Amino acid sequence: MTRAWWRVAAVLFAVAWGGNEFTPLLVLYRTRSHLDLLTVDVLLAAYVLGIVPGLLVGGPLSDRYGRRPLMLPAPVLGAIGSAVLAAGAHDPALLFVGRVCSGVALGLVMAVGTSWVKELSSPAYEPGVDSGAGARRASLALTTGFGLGAAVAAALAQWGPWPAQTPYLVNVTITVGALVAVLGVDETRPRSTHPGRLVDDLRIPAAGHRRFLLVVAPTAPWVFGTAASAYAILPSLLAARVPGLAVGLAGLMCLVALGCGVLVQLAGRRLDSPDDARGLGVGMLVAVPGLALAGATATTGSVALGLVAAAVLGCSYGLLLVGGLQEVQRIAGPDDLAGLTAVYYSVAYLGFFVPAVLAGLHTVVGYPSMFVVGAALAAACLGVVLLGWHRHLPATAPAPRTPAGRPRGTDAPGPVPVPDSVPVSSGPARSAAS
After folding, report:
1. 36 with 259: CB under 8 angstroms?
2. CA-CA distance, 408 to 410, in Å (whole number)?
């Protein structure tokens, strides 16, 4: 089963497709369903309410019970979410429910699926594979799904029949196919024979690692903050410039941003190094001009400039996502891999609230000024990364260790970090914020 990771990645792709197909349809809901800007931006962020529980509960539970039992419900929930969205084109309550279902599905695949791909991309399953392959493969599957989902949904909504339904029905078909494909994949994380208390699994000691707190966590919200700026905010600001083609423009900007995210991830493996945070540093460096270009787009209303801004912000997103996952997979041991991945994604998805926050503030502070402030904050976060560039690097012990008070199996592949951490005594949400 050397290439079994492909089948797990197919579920990541399909569920990510379903999570992002809603984005280019924001313009459709505003023009045909007559929902206001704040409502559609709140609906955009609503699936974070499903993502975070899916991440923070699904990740640690998959470390206890195995990847398969927590992964298989994801495509089912994803298909249900798309079906509800198809039925609720004019009903904000149904759209909200559909978004939350899609979010739970995405949270499960991001935590559990990313870990499963990582483990299937180890020498035990694929001899000769390099250590960063798992992070790259999971990141590329998600980013490709996000990008194609948005682009195809926009094209179908702009030129296809039943514009508010067809995009979601296509995703239902893809997701069911991915569910069938993953059914025969080997379990890589056997169910623990001495699991201990369930509450202990919801504690993620690696989330207190100083490198995670001081280098990874400060950059995480920018992953989806840059992406959402590119394909949610800018298309809304430019919609009036392309009458009759606003949905198509939204899809094009999604495709440009996430296409650049895919390409930069393919080239970004050369940036990765266990001795520094180069990938995260370059990602934050690229975010600064990207946000400045977004501010210039908001000022001028130039569609061409908006596409350039989307490309630069997409490059930042791609570098930050793969760089963050590679850091997480070096910090976490086998007993914390899915859990720490869940914490990372939970912090990253805070960036998805950016469109709603800016929509609420734009009557007081204009979009150009807010993008300039964002560029300044990105520059400050770049400084934080540079300060911690070579500090608190995770080391590996020769044999797995089980954290005190948290008995688990230690038969999963991969090294266990020697902790460079601060005490963490609460669940994952508090760990990420402490």
Report:
1. no
2. 6
